[in-house]
Here is the input.
Amino acid sequence: MDGMSNIDAVPASKTVLSIRLVGLLGAQLCVYSTLSALCFACPLYLLDRSGSSTLYGVVVAIAFILGVLATPAGGVLADREGHRSVLAALGIVLMIAAMLFVPMKRSLPLAAVVAVMLCVQYAVQSILKPILQIETLRIAGKEKVERAIALVSQTTMASNILGPVVGTAVYGCFGIDALCAIAAAAFAMSSLLYWAALKRNVHSEVTEDGSTRMACQSDFRSAIRYLLQNTSLLAVILLAAVLNLALVGLTIGAPVIVTRHLGMQSSCVGIIEAAMGLGGLVGGGLVGIWPNRFSFNGICRYVAMICLGVVPVIVTLPIGVDVIVFAALTVGSAWVMVWASIASVEIVAFVQRTAPTELCGKVLSVVYMALFCATPIGQLAYGFAYDRWAPAAVFAAMLVVLVLTTVLFYRLKSRSRQTM
Here is the structure.
């Protein structure tokens, strides 16, 4: 009888975990889609009003500062319990920010209001990322690390498809005020979903001894010391930051090329954003379906494939035919995001496998902080570049950086093999 009860308990436990995982991913889809819509529409609203890509790049870059500063807090919170309250509170903060945006933009300088709005959004994303990564891994189990990361990645990419499409439609048809009202309701819903999905702490093999975990939580510098002692892992993080910096040229370049150089409507930018999200979704899906076919050992190939997606854009831009350039930019962006998503999953999986369990959240936050630091640098540089040089020249410079990143990843992998 005891054996029968144990057997019956296994499927029930798995069902509960599956429900929690679906609920967690559903809440992530809700909040990330809304964030994606606002992060897309608010800077575009500023670009439409000001007509300056430099101001566009500067405001978005400034907004990342608070995101960078909030990243360590996300790492520390990820290694603690009580994620339910934290995630619900973050949803409420986003709801309040969306509600305040409408009256603030009418009485204050638009650039400042957009910058503050984006600061809040990026800060919340910095806290959310490591928490969701750790919580998903806890529910799925450490033996399924790549699939857990792929699930989070796919949900994020699906949000990147849904957010810009909905954001563009609402912004184009009803204006930014209506979009903020819808966003406030969506953030409130996400808080309820987080509260329902994480009713109690999920115990799994990922959780270590309480005293050891609390000792590590008390000092974030332990993660920094660990990275300084593991130069290979530190090199991977730095190269990931360089890769992210290079790809910023695509996200900044899409609205600039479409609206200014091709003279198309803002809604066309949403098509490219959706294509990028679809590409990322496909990349994460490939890893989730065939996790054994991808590994960090193939990182050089993945970055090389990213390079191939940039080449058609460079070739077609000098031609000047709007339809051809738009098609090349759309397809190339989707192709780039397929392999960028695969590379991202493998880099995060490599970090989670390498870092000690009690430091995993904080080390992940260092990774995201490096990526955040690279993003505003890229936004400032590309915003300046698109105002002064032809888009083809800017994309050529991006390709050079990507090729150098591929070479450096190859050298790092070769050096690791020699060490072994």
Q: What stands out?
A: The chain has 14 helices and no strands. Residues 1-17, 201-217 have pLDDT under 50 and may be disordered. The two ends are 51 Å apart (CA to CA).
